[in-house]
Amino acid sequence: MLHQIVSWIVDTVGLWGYPGIIVLMFLESSFFPFPSEVVVPPAGYLAAQGEMSLALVIGSGILGSLLGASFNYWLAVRWGRPLFERYGRYFLVSSKSLDRAELFFARHGHISTFVGRLLPGIRQYISLPAGLARMNPLLFAAFTALGSGVWVIILALTGYVIGNNPQLVGQYLHRILWLVLFACLLLVAGYIWLRRRQGRSQGSLPEAADGNVD
User: Fold this and answer.
1) What span, in angstroms and rounded, lies between the C-alpha atoms of 48 and 68?
2) Does 212 reside within a domain?
């Protein structure tokens, strides 16, 4: 079944070209549970065969991901908060919790968006809380493109190197995913450490100023 799906995607990408990658990655990043793992590697394989450009494959994948994520962001901005403010009490969501979410993404939206785009099962939905909190659109787009870019490059290079072998691609991506998860943990830990260090430094500034006055 998986081989048939991948064969269909290879044929579709070969027929539609780069717009096909954009459309499929738009669906994958928005509301349709379409795994990017079966979209970009076949395109990378076609690039290895000389039928496509690897750079344009990566660019198309990032663009499609950004468009899909922006669509979810817009849905959350347009309908999210009014919907939760009206019906949130039925889901144990209060106005205060929405305010806290907005404050969280105002402070940590960049790292949350970047890391979220690298995590399976989360990358499709990280745009919703970002839109719900009305995260800065330019920052959202920048870190969405950055996180999507890392993942798309991994997928494209995997298909480029390994070829049109769904099982082998899946095995390698499974190993790479664990490395990505470990890297995300290190990144989040480093971010938390840096924020705490900055907080301590800012907290000690008044004391230092008092010492200089004396």
Assistant:
1) 27
2) no
